[in-house]
Amino acid sequence: MSIETSTFDVQTIRKDFPILEKARPHGKSLVYLDNAASNQKPQAVIDAITHYYTHQNSNVHRGIHHLSQVATLHYDAVREKVRDFFNAPSAQEIVFTSGNTDAINLVAQSYGGAFLSEGDEVVITEMEHHSNIVPWQMICEKTGATLRIAPINDDGEVIAEEYETLLNEKTKFVSIVYVSNALGTVNPVKEMTRLAHDAGAAVLLDAAQAAPHMRIDVQDLDCDFLTISPHKMCGPTGIGALYGKAELLDKMPPFKGGGDMILSVTFDETIYNEVPYKFEAGTPNIAGVIGLGAAIDYMMGIGLDQIEAHEAELLAYGTKILQQVDGLRMIGTANHKAGVLGFVLEAAHPHDIGQILDGEGVAIRAGHHCAQPVMKHFGIPATARASLSLYNTKEDLDALVVALGNVNEMFG
Prior knowledge:
By secondary structure, the chain is of the alpha/beta class. It has two domains: 132 residues, Aspartate Aminotransferase, domain 1, CATH 3.90.1150.10; 254 residues, Aspartate Aminotransferase, domain 2. The protein has 15 helices and 15 strands.
């Protein structure tokens, strides 16, 4: 595809994803609405990974032979693609990790371990995924810092006044989800970042659920760190990326030790490699990085603005028709949302909903979505969650509503 094409043809796009045609759950056509957990992969990504293993397989940054040189060339080129994807100033500000969770842990343990101390405060929100809660609990316990929580309202929005009140001279770090995986809320992260900086705090944005759905410009946001989850944006599992401002990455100690993150090692002293390599110990997930590069090429070829517009139309349509289902209550009704339709039914537990829908070939997620504090806020154990991607259609959402009607009939 050419970069930023002028038309969005969802039926053509669907043909790029072989599983949508080939998978037949319980003999039914697949309606895949579990994209917030992991979305499907286009043939271009599958082919890129296969090509690496078939034609280029070798370790990177170590060999002088042809395969290693070729693998290194393609691997390093992806760092520039990630930089461009987020408009980062330098490719050296992009660190490859094993995933979004690993990237958050890197910042919590490295930055937090070096710069947090007793009496300091870390601020997160009530809507965070567990991967943006537990690492901060761990580092606060280790350093003596205090974790503070910005509450949300019943629409699933951070209460702005409460968030601003939490920020003070003790606040040293703020870590915010860009888009909630459980609610779909798009947080006003640019303004939240500005307020945090005014208080003297560094800011991490968890963009696992944002990167698949919208254009992100880290220079415009002025965040200090940003993390992504490539397997939610048409890429493979087992790979992630961290953006960090160069001046902060330079000051941070390594998170892990081993090969490739060093310049020299003796039994008396180790001299660490430069950024970003000092955070990339050991043999990396080379095929995963290659797949990430192909995923970025694919998404950029379609056009990020067009993906966002298509999914916004689906979200509005899905919200409208789900509200017509008897006994259904939406969980997450923020004014600004992306990609997520969470709900409960009076007639059935979310786990029963998920199982019955699966029998109809409709794949959704049911549970607490690794966001148990969100469930506690709404006084529920779990939700059913349909989540969208670029290849979904209004027909997918119609199939969801029909299947929910069957749930009501079964439990009615």
